[in-house]
């Protein structure tokens, strides 16, 4: 809402870094999109960060083409985030097939750059248009109408149980046959709903992966706590990323 101050950062890594240093109490980072899938860079940063997930937000995404120029015919270069380009691919091919696409760290950064250059545009939100005094040349240019991004609120706080919660963990298994099956088996035996499973290369050894799992329930729930403990005994490494309200539930914060 409007009760907090929002400060844009140049990259997802910067968001993690500033919250870790205590410059800001919370950060908001994208983690997956309903069209383009996981935001791998965010997942990778959780491996090296001690920050916790404090909340999740599902936000419907709509992209506009913004510029200081009056007509599409003037546009030779377009700035935006890679995911925004991917989500507007068909529109761009139809209306601006010869424009050069330049990737930015965020759509807000794209809008800032376009605000200072003639012959350029940005794919961003109407809020960005207002912030950087840009005109909306075309609205809702995304290829799919049901375009939703899941964001995570990261911080240092432990979030209390609400009764409608989700717990996120990450772990590394041994590189042997059946290792992942054995680690996930306690979840099935405890009759816990696993709502997400994602893998990422560990970057420390070829063909070695770490896994992200979202479970229904809070780590303070006995069943969830015992299940995660059983999984940890079967892993080379396991890290609790946080328990937090399922989007739409009421959040109660306990100071760290």
Protein model, in words:
- The chain is of the alpha+beta class and 256 residues long.
- Helix content is 26%, strand content 33%.
- The protein is built from eight helices and 15 strands.
- It has helices at residues 12-20, 40-48, 82-87, 89-95, 107-114, 126-131, 179-189, 222-232; strands spanning 27-33, 37-38, 52-60, 64-67, 77-80, 100-103, 120-124, 135-138, 148-155, 158-159, 165-172, 194-201, 209-216, 237-245, 253-254.
- The strands form four sheets. The protein has a five-stranded mixed β-sheet. Strands 2-1-9-3 form a four-stranded antiparallel β-sheet. A four-stranded antiparallel β-sheet has the order 12-13-11-14, sandwiched between helices.
- Helix 7 (179-189) packs antiparallel against helix 8.
- The model is unreliable at 249-256 (pLDDT under 50).
Q: Give the oligomeric state.
A: single chain
The N- and C-terminal alpha carbons lie at a distance of 23 Å
What is the string of SSEs from the N terminus onward? Answer: HEEHEEEHHEHEHEEEEHEEHEE
Strand content: 25-35%
Radius of gyration: 21 Å
Which structural class best describes the helix and strand composition? alpha+beta
Largest sheet: 5 strands, mixed
Poorly predicted tracts of residues: 249-256
């Amino acid at each position: 809402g409007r009760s907090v101050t929002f400060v844009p950062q140049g990259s997802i890594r910067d968001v993690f870094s500033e919250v870790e240093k205590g410059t800001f109490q919370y950060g908001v980072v994208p983690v997956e999109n309903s069209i383009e899938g996981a935001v791998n860079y965010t997942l990778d940063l959780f491996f090296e960060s001690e920050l916790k997930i404090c909340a999740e937000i599902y936000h419907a995404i709509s992209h506009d083409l913004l510029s200081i120029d009056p007509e599409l015919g003037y546009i030779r270069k377009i700035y935006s985030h890679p995911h925004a380009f991917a989500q507007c691919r068909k529109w761009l091919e139809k209306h601006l097939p010869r424009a050069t696409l330049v990737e930015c760290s965020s759509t807000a950064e794209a809008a800032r750059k376009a605000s200072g250059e003639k012959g350029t545009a940005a794919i961003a939100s109407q809020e960005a248009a207002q912030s950087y005094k840009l005109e909306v040349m075309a609205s809702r240019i995304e290829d799919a109408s049901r375009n939703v991004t899941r964001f995570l609120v990261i911080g240092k706080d432990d979030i209390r149980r609400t009764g409608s919660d989700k717990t996120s963990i990450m772990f590394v298994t041994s590189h042997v046959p059946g290792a992942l099956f054995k680690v996930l088996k306690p979840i099935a035996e405890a009759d816990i709903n696993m709502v997400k499973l994602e893998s990422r290369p560990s970057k420390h050894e070829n063909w070695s992966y770490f896994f992200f799992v979202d479970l229904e329930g809070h780590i303070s729930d006995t069943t969830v706590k015992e299940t995660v403990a059983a999984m940890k005994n079967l892993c080379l490494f396991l890290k609790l990323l946080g328990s937090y309200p399922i989007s739409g539930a009421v959040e109660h914060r306990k100071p760290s």
